[in-house]
Amino acid sequence: MKPGRSAAELGREIVSCRACPRLVAYREGVEPRASYASQVYWRKPVPGFGDLGGKLLILGLAPALHGAERTGRIFTGDASSRFLVTALHSAGFANQPMSESRDDGLVYRGCYITAAVKCVPPGDKPTREEFDNCSRFLDAEISLMPSLEGVLALGSLAFKAYVSHLARAGTDVRGMVFEHGASYRVDGGPVLYAGYHPSPRNTNTGKLTMPMLVGLLKKIRRDLRI
Ligand code: SF4
After folding, report:
1. What percent of the chain clears pLDDT 90, i.e. is strictly above it?
2. H or E segment at 114?
């Protein structure tokens, strides 16, 4: 990894990565869903997207099979994306409530969104080695956020990935437990917030509602004075 690279250089490095043979084979072999049969899937790693000058990093687990791994932009083109971006728009972080394609005009203000693992994993389950392989990219993205004051981890695996980032940096991470709405103030670093992932499994069952997610995002805005 080259130190001091620009965001554009990092993006190119991520998109060309082939470090995880299992994930390379899986992403390149994705069968398009019938409703997207006429589309050309992205089939490459998906870098983060948004405002690197913002105070908030939102961290998901990995691109979705027919969402980001199809469209080439994180949280774009599937049900989870629609739920999250509607909430971000309500809380003032997005200029529009929809996220459908890389050219849909979406702009984030004050936040940057990325995934702990940049390639879609089978069953949404990256291996420990794949998390470790991709951690250098998360570390590099974080190093490009000079104003970072908060990290919202969506789901327990994204939370664990960020806790691992803290541990790599030498932070004492004892007692950090994933629970929706929990927050941990890290000495000298960004506040870590935990939130349920906006997957249909959570939103269709009412485990995560729109008011819950908008409320959490607005609380973060207040805390961080965004
Ligand atoms: S998951 Fe990360 S490290 Fe592995 S191939 Fe994709 S971009 Fe590279």
Report:
1. 95
2. strand 111-115
C-alpha 164/C-alpha 44 separation (Å) is 24
Average pLDDT over every residue of 66-70 = 97
Select from 14, 30, 74, 133 the residue to mutate for testing ligand 1; criterion: most ligand atoms less than 8 Å from CB: 133
Structural domains in the chain? 7-224 (3.40.470.10)
Each residue of 116-150: pLDDT tens digit? 999 999 999 999 999 999 999 999 999 999 999 99
Q: Around Cβ 147, how many Cβ atoms within 10 Å?
A: 14
* Overall residue count recorded for the chain in this entry: 226
Distance from Cα 216 to the centre of ligand 1, integer Å = 30
Amino acid 5: pLDDT:
79
Which tokens belong to 161? 């990935």
Mutate to test the pocket of ligand 1, among 22, 43, 114, 130 (most ligand atoms within 8 A of CB): 130
Average pLDDT of every residue of the chain:
96
Q: Helix 210-224 and helix 79-90: axis angle, to 10°?
A: 50
Where do the H-state alpha helices sit in the chain? 7-15, 21-28, 68-71, 79-90, 128-143, 156-168, 200-203, 210-224
Strands 183-185 and 191-195: antiparallel
